[in-house]
Amino acid sequence: MTEINLQQIEYAVRLILEGIGEDPNREGLLDTPKRVAKMYAEMFAGLNQDPKEYFETFFNEVHEELVLVKDIPFFSMCEHHLVPFFGHAHVAYIPREGKVTGLSKLARAVEAVAKRPQLQERITSTVANAIMEQLEPYGAMVVVEAEHMCMTMRGVKKPGAKTVTTAARGVFQTDAVKRSEVLSFINQK
């Protein structure tokens, strides 16, 4: 288990402030290193979580049709620039042999995976793989839509541009009708 070292983060933030020509001892910045360290501890809490743990508890319910939780908001940090990206995840699966999970568990898994230095592609595939491994459904599909501040604030500077990633497992890889059903539900507003 990774331990977050708040003092080390505080020291690093002081160095960054000095590096950009700021005085970390001026009134407005005195507590900034502490605040940033606490924020990082919260934002990277997912480093100590395995999303599969959310699917260890399941319920027996005779239901072998689509389950979809859409528009799950998330915030993450781009591992390339350590700036935020944020958006919505849509998580679907088709239970097998009555093995269903609590709906909130799908959202919790997204949150756990997002709360670490991350790539959007990895969030998408990690959540889909965790569902497949723990629940053994007929299939799982995850679609993630996000705006990346590394494209909005810097570099190409294109606010509003969204990146969409998908991960299809099981029946969603082989059955175009099932895959289209999920996408049509996601696109309904």
What is this entry, summarized?
This protein has 189 residues and is of the alpha+beta class. It has helices at 6-19, 32-43, 103-114, 120-135, 149-152, 171-174, 176-187, and strands spanning 59-60, 67-78, 84-94, 99-100, 117-118, 139-148, 163-170.
Describe the structure.
39% of the residues lie in helices and 25% in strands. The protein has 189 residues and is of the alpha+beta class. The strands form two sheets. It has a five-stranded mixed β-sheet. The protein has a two-stranded antiparallel ribbon with strand order 1-4. The chain contains seven helices and seven strands; from the N terminus they run H-H-E-E-E-E-H-E-H-E-H-E-H-H. It is elongated and about 60 Å long. It has helices at 6-19, 32-43, 103-114, 120-135, 149-152, 171-174, 176-187, and strands at 59-60, 67-78, 84-94, 99-100, 117-118, 139-148, 163-170.
Short key terms for the protein model shown above:
single chain, 189 residues, alpha+beta, GTP cyclohydrolase I activity, metal-binding, zinc ion binding, hydrolase
- Largest sheet, strands/sense/barrel: 5 strands, mixed
Rg calculated over all Cα atoms:
19 Å
Backbone shape = elongated
**Strand arrangement across the biggest beta sheet:** 5-2-3-6-7
- Quaternary state reads single chain
Uncertain runs with pLDDT below 50, 5 residues or more? none
Structural class: alpha+beta
Mean pLDDT rating: 96
Strand content: 15-25%
How far do the termini sit from each other?
40 Å
Q: What percent of residues adopt helix (DSSP H or I)? A: 25-40%
Topology, element by element:
Layout: H1 6-19, H2 32-43, E1 59-60, E2 67-78, E3 84-94, E4 99-100, H3 103-114, E5 117-118, H4 120-135, E6 139-148, H5 149-152, E7 163-170, H6 171-174, H7 176-187
Helix pairs in contact: 1-2, 3-4
